[in-house]
Write a structure and sequence with these properties.
The protein has 64 residues and is an all-alpha fold. It contains 2 helices and no strands.
Length: 64
């Protein structure tokens, strides 16, 4: 088994305990994937979002 140095296998930049907290308390039970963040960004920079102004769009899976 590979040494993880206390990091999560599921998200290599988070400590395993931090990832466990997200799994327990987040609405989706996981962090957003890169593709999901990219999809939100793509919509916000497109003409389809031309009437969205002054808003915070949370792509956090319901955690924050």
């Amino acid at each position: 088994m590979a040494e993880t140095h206390g990091l999560s296998d599921n998200h290599p930049l988070l400590a395993a305990s931090t990832y466990d907290i997200v799994k327990m308390h987040g609405a989706l039970g996981r962090l957003a994937r890169r593709e999901e963040i990219a999809a939100v960004t793509a919509v916000l920079v497109s003409d389809d979002a031309s009437c969205i102004t002054g808003r915070t769009i949370g792509a956090d899976g319901g955690f924050f």
